[in-house]
Amino acid sequence: MVITIDGIKCQAHKGEYILDIAKRNNIHIPTLCHSDALPGQGNCRLCIVEVIEKGRKKVVTSCIFPVTGEIEVVTNSEKIRGIRKTLIRLLSARAPKNEYIDKLRQEYNIPPETRFKTDDNENCILCGLCVRACEEMGIYAISTVNRGITKKVSTPFDEASDVCIGCGVCAYVCPTSAIKVLDEGGKRHLWNKTFELMKCVKCGEYITTREHFEYIRKKIAAEGTEIIEPLCDKCKKKTLGENMAQTYK
Amino acid sequence: MNRNVKRTVLICCGPGCLSNQGMDVYEEFKTKILISGLDVDLRSAVETENACVTDTLHPGIKTDLETMVSPAVKATGCQGLCEMGPLVRIEPDSIFYTKVKVSDVTEIIEKTLMENRVVERLLYKDPVQGRKVRAREEAEFYKSQLKVALRNVGEIDPESLDDYIERDGYRALKIVLSQKTSEDVLSEIEKSGLRGRGGAGFPTGRKWRQCARTGNYPKYVICNGDEGDPGAFMDRSIMEGDPHSVIEGMIIGAYAVGSHEGFMYIRDEYFLAIQNMTKALEQARREGFLGKNILGSGFDFDIQIVRGGGAFVCGESTALMASIEGKVGEPRAKYIRSVEKGLWGKPTVLNNVETWANVPVIINKGADWFCSIGTERSKGTKVFSLVGKVRNTGLIEVPMGVTLRRIIFDIGGGIAGGRKFKAVQTGGPSGGCIPESLLDLKVDFDTLDEAGSMMGSGGMIVMDDRTCMVDVARYYLNFLSEESCGKCVPCREGIRRMLEILNDICEGRGRQGDIELLAELGETVREASLCGLGKTAPNPVLTTIKYFKDEYLAHIEDKTCPAGVCKNLTTYYIDKTLCKSCGLCKKNCPSEAIEEKLEGYFINLLKCIKCGSCMNACRFGAVKILAGIMRKL
Ligand code: SF4
Ligand code: SF4
Ligand code: SF4
Ligand code: FES
């Protein structure tokens, strides 16, 4: 079927999300909580658009709105811009000093926040991606705690989690870089816990935490594949290259 | 009064009366009548009086009569007039006693049950008519009501299946299973125009049809008994007072959509509701109304109770389903409808308690009958819990389309303490506040929406002139800020900032532009939030701005709270020209802030704690709140 986004005709499958169709057609819709790897969050609402169906307009969230009919989509109407601006203002009041949010604020010509009490140290916008990523790994070390305006992401009772493996996937998916992974002196500090970092057996570069490495090793062993050695990415590639060269000699 | 008819003493043990020792009154009646010698006395008294009658009757009937004349004592669900509880009724004599204490029981037994005399002192004084009434039906509170969903609540012993069956219980189910196809049921419910009583008012028949249509199995039906609104007890009263109605409604719904498994989600605090419902489910199973091969029809269906954790947001349908699935009770986007993918991704019909309770009546009396009640687009009746500053607080049910004025001034008996009406909030914490000028609005789903409020599940809170509307908005937003699940940005951050502004305004830090900013934030929260909680959360703020803007301005510009509620913005003084030097204010002041001088009474502002007791006490309106202009001088 064909839907129209901002006047452009786009091919679409039934059930596909508006955001994905727009992306494919190079139509930009701002997002924060969306990740292709972990779709369906729908929390930040930045990606709202207007959908016109049977003459009726409604505001929908494009990253989770599945198309079922030949609709018309407007991604940038005055109404949408207005709401989006207010949303960005709210985000910026929450995390005023966050680089990413501040860039958004400037992009939308919103003056720096003066009406609300702000906390310069806040960076998390509670998109929930980190929690999803950790769950997806099968670890469940962090979760959102509390509800309403006191909600936050944390380990159980804010204590060092006994299941966290220090892989840093949470930090990697965070759109605002709110989770700080601190690596120093062969140690990694993350979520109130200190991990020992492992070295690459070839070059001696730090690769990841021992827990993370063990976790991967176990997983791979369970799949019956060859046991891996602790190697950094570079050396891994190099070994692979050497092996290949050997084979094709 | 005919003593040959079995009498029943109905003691209200609904939520309101229970909190006033209704249960003790019930126990006292039971002990005094059924266990103690009074029972014997009572029977013999009756027997002697009826001796001539019984003598001429067949001996078998005589024993029947003996048991018949012994009064039955029943603890019922909420009878409605909670304000005056505990309530006691004696039927069929139509005697209605209010505020009955344990110590009154003996007198009622001796005078009313044994001597046929009315205990005048315990009769209800109708505030509208200004006189005492004997029968409940004479009271204004009951006159304008029409009980459909509540038809059995307060009339039967909720623990007795026989009581329910005696009042047409499970008749609808029998008709449906023996004579009707699921299509018949669907079209009957569609024709009735029944709309969901839990909030949004979605047509029930359409919902059922959509679910019946999908070929995906299994299908589920759910009863939402979460009722998170503070102060609301509609659903609770039905579950406690007439559990079988809900069960029967669910079985009929399940039959219509083709479901074999149902869930009853009840909030954990509703201990009695859970208990009565559990018992009722057991009874229904035992009698073959639930379970395999119901009444020999070949249709299987059973219901399981799920106890809810009690978060307000769990009343939201998708959050409730998540909660049943054992996940965190957070809502999800409703772009895919629950009737297609609901509980565990399967087609699901979810209705609230009141909606389900309406179903058996519609089948019994027909869609045409149901349609004849209500307005063009809202059919039937609606249950409300009427609370706040009215004389008669309680549980009521009225035909759709009755005016707010009728509800507040006739049923509610007007404003308590002879004060003035200011606003009524409908629809629970995220409903809007409706001003006096709209009191003639006909209450139905659409008119309330248009006024910026909503039907919600049926909370109705009446406010008098001592209420500060800015403070009211702040109160509800504060509640919602704790109850929002915090998942999406507009709701979580928007409510937080709106609350911050309202706190500022109430504490005297309001700024120019705050009203506009509140409106702008409110609009975004409404448009962009994910679930119903966020979409409606700004209502209290937006409606108070719309209808009571001058109060906001007084707070922000004059730094005055006209109602004398926001303490930082209130200064009391005594108007010398009105003061009659009676000294009542001084007597009532808890902090000895009122001094008597030669020229009259004065308030010592250093000692005043701004409680307003003096203002409430003064009969001449001499205690006033310093208005903005004067403050500036
Ligand atoms: S830490 Fe980052 S990824 Fe996690 S919720 Fe906050 S903003 Fe999202
Ligand atoms: S609107 Fe509020 S309650 Fe609903 S999902 Fe969003 S944050 Fe949660
Ligand atoms: S407001 Fe209260 S404390 Fe102040 S003068 Fe009146 S009664 Fe006394
Ligand atoms: S990207 Fe769609 S809601 Fe965040």
The number of helical elements of chain A comes to 7
Strand runs of chain A, count: 11
Give a list of the ligands. iron/sulfur cluster, FE2/S2 (inorganic) cluster
Q: Judging from the principal axes of the Cα atoms, what is the shape of chain A?
A: globular
Q: Helical proportion of chain B?
A: 40-55%
DSSP summary: helix tally of chain B: 28
CATH class of the largest domain in chain B: Alpha Beta
In CATH terms, the superfamily of the largest domain in chain B is: NADH-ubiquinone oxidoreductase 51kDa subunit
Which chain pair has the greatest contact?
A-B, 34 and 37 residues
Poorly predicted regions of chain B are 40-68, 629-633
Number of domain units of chain B: 4
Low-confidence stretches of chain A: none
What is the CATH third-level topology name of the largest domain in chain B? Rossmann fold
Rg value of chain B: 27 Å
List the helices and strands of chain A in order. Answer: EEHEEEHHHEEHEEEEHH
Give the N-terminus to C-terminus distance of chain B in angstroms: 72 Å
Reported for the largest beta sheet of chain B, the result is: 5 strands, mixed
How much of the residues of chain A is beta strand, in percent? 15-25%
CATH architecture of the largest domain in chain B: 3-Layer(aba) Sandwich
Number of domains of chain A: 2
Number of strands of chain B: 19
Domain 4Fe-4S ferredoxin-type (chain B): 570-599, 601-628
Keywords (chain B): 4Fe-4S, Iron, Iron-sulfur, Metal-binding
GO molecular function (chain B): 4 iron, 4 sulfur cluster binding; FMN binding; metal ion binding; NADH dehydrogenase (ubiquinone) activity
Family (chain B): Belongs to the complex I 51 kDa subunit family.
Structure commentary:
- The complex is a heterodimer of chains A (249) and B (633).
- Chain A is an alpha+beta fold and 249 residues long.
- Chain A folds into 2 domains: 2-76, Ubiquitin-like (UB roll); 129-248, no CATH class.
- In chain A, 31% of the residues lie in helices and 19% in strands.
- In chain A, the strands form 3 sheets. A 5-stranded mixed beta sheet of chain A has the order 2-1-5-3-4, with helices on one face. Chain A has a 4-stranded antiparallel beta sheet with strand order 8-9-10-11. A two-stranded antiparallel sheet of chain A has the order 6-7.
- Chain B has 28 helices and 19 strands.
- In chain B, the strands form 6 sheets. Chain B has a 5-stranded mixed beta sheet. In chain B, strands 2-1-3-4 form a 4-stranded mixed beta sheet, with helices on one face.
- Chains A and B meet through strand 4 and helix 2 of A and helix 20, helix 21 and helix 22 of B.
- One iron/sulfur cluster binds at residues 572, 588-589, 591, 593-594, 603, 608-614 of chain B.
- The site of FE2/S2 (inorganic) cluster has 13 residues of chain A, from loops.
- Chain B: Pfam families: Complex1_51K, Fer4_10, NADH_4Fe-4S.
- Chain B: Keywords: 4Fe-4S, Iron, Iron-sulfur, Metal-binding.
- Chain B: Residues 570-599, 601-628 form the 4Fe-4S ferredoxin-type domain.
- Chain B: Belongs to the complex I 51 kDa subunit family.
